[in-house]
Amino acid sequence: xxxxxxxxxxxxxxxxxxxxxxxxxIVINLYTDWLQxxxxxxxxxxxxxxxxxxxxxxxxxxxxxQLRTREELLEENSRLKRQxxxxxxRSQLLAAVKAENxxxxxxxxxxxxxxxxxxxxxxxxxSPDPLEHVLMIDKGRDDGVVPGTPIMDAAGLLGxxxxxxxxxxxxxxxxxxxxxxxxxxxRNSVRxxxxxxxxxxxxxxRHLANTSDIRxxxxxxxxxxxxRFPAGYPVGEVxxxxxxxGRPFAEAEVQPRGRMNRSRFVLAVLSxxxxxxxxx
Length: 280
Prior knowledge:
The chain is an alpha+beta fold. It has helices at about 10-30, 35-115, and strands at about 120-125, 135, 150, 155-165, 170-175, 180-185, 190-195, 205-210, 220, 235-240, 250-255, 265-270.
């Protein structure tokens, strides 16, 4: 009669069997592709565990990258702002230089049209008193500028020198309320006196006969009477004429041709036998 239970393999036998099985698997893996599907499944099962264990490191790297990216963006933004400011400054300087060159070209063209000797001067100051229309220029007696020297820009008369130092002079504009200038109409040579009003954009012709042939659009030139200004310089344009039958005289409003508050460079019209000093 056979026994109901038999003893299993001993532990030593199990170890030996496992070793043989492992050796067989190694041989099969080396020389066959039978275990390839099993390896792929095992890799698929193990991949999530690798991903989870590596997650903290990846989160740390991501946070560092984000922080560095933000700092780099802030630094680049600051650098670009500085560059924009520099470019704007250069653009403004170029615009100023271009405007100066334009004024100088206009002055040179005007100087070529004049028979008198002229000197290019730069405006270096204006009177702080709003009721006094006075400029300061950077030429004086050492340059041939004396009191009474006419000052003009490319468009027309500005005024005349009232004080001349050795290297600078004060110029009273024709728009000053204390200034009066003999003029004549280019169209018909009718004479009048243009008086300053204290307004940089307005002169007045007062005490005109109601029958005077002066109309809107007439160009006024210096007449040369009185010896204060040479004849023939543009002074202004008539913009309105007021004739009141109840008043003995008519009045006319004149817009100056010269750029009273916009010219940086001006022409000093020299007199006498001095040699023309030209421009700087």
